[in-house]
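Researcher: Batch entry, complex prediction.
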Amino acid sequence: MRTTTTRDIALPLLVLAALACLPLLGPPDYFMHLAITTILVALACTAWALMGRFGIVSFGHGAFLGVAAYSMALLWNLQGITPWIGLPVGVALAALAGALLGWPAFRLRVVGHYFALVTLAAGEIVRILITALRSITGGSLGMTPNQAPPAEAFAAMQMSKAGFWWLGLLAWACGLLAWRLLDRSMTSKALAAVAEDEDAAASIGIRVAREKLKVTLLSAALAGLAGGLTAQYRMYLNPETLSGLGVSLQIVFGAIAGGMYSLIGPTIGAVFTIGLDETLRIGFGTQFIGAAPLIYGLLLVLFVLFLPRGIAGLLERRRRRPGHDVPAAVARGAPGDVAVPATEPPRA
Amino acid sequence: MDPFFLEALVNGVLLGGVFALPVLGLNLVFGVVDVIWLCYAELVMVGMYAVWFLYTQAGWPLAAAFAACLPIVAALGVLLHVLVVRPLLHAPPINQVLATGGVLFVLQGAATLVFSTDFRSLGVEMPPMEVGEVFISGTKLAAFLAALAGAAALWAFLKFTYVGTAIRAIARDREIMPLMGVDPRRIYLITSAVGGTLAGFAACLLVVQLDVHPFVGLSFGPITFMICVMGGLGNMLGGFLAAFLMGLIVSVGGFWWNTEMSYVVAFVFFIVVIFLRPRGLFAR
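Model: Structure tokens for the complex:
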């Protein structure tokens, strides 16, 4: 662990300030739209990688997006509570969902494949519940938050693209800050130990379930933040795009493609996936629907096979030199033995 | 007893029979190769398209289309193993699951590209039967009986053939068996082929009950995984029994509430089971 230098604070702030200036350059609407979408996906991927890099693999992060987004939108549509209050409430509920799922799972030592499948089930439950409660959520047709009168638009968090860019940027920065703070805390060290060997970690006094729960709460809350902002920006909510297996796998893909072991990796992954999506959409249009998921899936397989540490891992390998500070999780070893607990319950 | 409730019970058992085959296939592959094929339901989807295409487009007799479906999906299973799973045998489980998840997208995309997103129906229906006051769909009953026969054939293969014994041995101890002269590479290949064949068999039974579309796998894929885990991953008998349990929950839940809520109940049940019995319902 090293001390914080001025450079550590000044550099990120400079980057953030530069990014915040983006809308002032007067970019085309389409570009702004892509930028906002990307920054929110980046937040979701960062949230996933926050726990994914410690071998706590969730296939249900879509559920957290959905819980936060729908509770926010329902509070606004049914009770008239502004999303400025609704979003924090939604984020809290997403964290609560994470706790409801995580606490028993970690206490009862549901790990590895089993944990992944439990989260998968949870994600599906949220998707089906949203669909089934169609009298208030609109079911699979989706729902639209009520339009506020122009004078009260800001109070209802209905803003221009620039407003959402700044808000998204702030949320994304919070995500990265959470990552950094976690990296410097004992929790990160504890989780790295847990990822190596859960029994050994427990035997040296690490409270495994509690440490795992901490990072899960954080991850669920950040994912909820991304979900709520996405819904509010699009002004449209749909169970297929805000929960369920499809979204969850997309988040996982972004994090893996970018590289889940480095701070900026998931963000690189988000840029990559959104760029890929748009290229495929424009390149193939509606003429060859199906080509996009085909190439998407192919790339996912190729990434896992040949580049398991993602794009960021590729960059890091080039850049690493003696004396350079490498985060613990990255320094741990060759691409093959990334942190995944080997402690699966023995099979009957 | 209420005849509709009785009908729900019967349908639950029949549904369980349909779940049972993909569950057995997945369990076999996991138990032996130790890799979860996240794209298993999509292999079934490809098989369903194969039957649909051969029967309605190429004009083959239905039996011939069924017969062709098995080797096609078996070959796909082998391909999946050689191209994707084998290079990742020693990779962390998450990477294996993700890679087969990528194959899921590939198969869905390929199916959309070739067959479009239209719902395709085989248009084969057997007359329903009336037993007492209960109506039983002839198609579902036939599929159920075929599934039982398939499960019995798999059991006999594993129990009485030399290769089957080797497969069981590898599943028991993958370190020792190579020393006893079993070539795990060959066994993994054979297991993948058998797993693929089971997916093809499941496809034959499903294609007469469901319309085929590129995303049909998502309608029974997640629940198949949950059944496997509930029965205990790699535990064939446990998975088989859990399939019927899940079939009953979905069917009776659909009778009491509606189909959507019945899936919610089934998934919640799954999560609770994993919390209480992490090694599966039937672990010793």
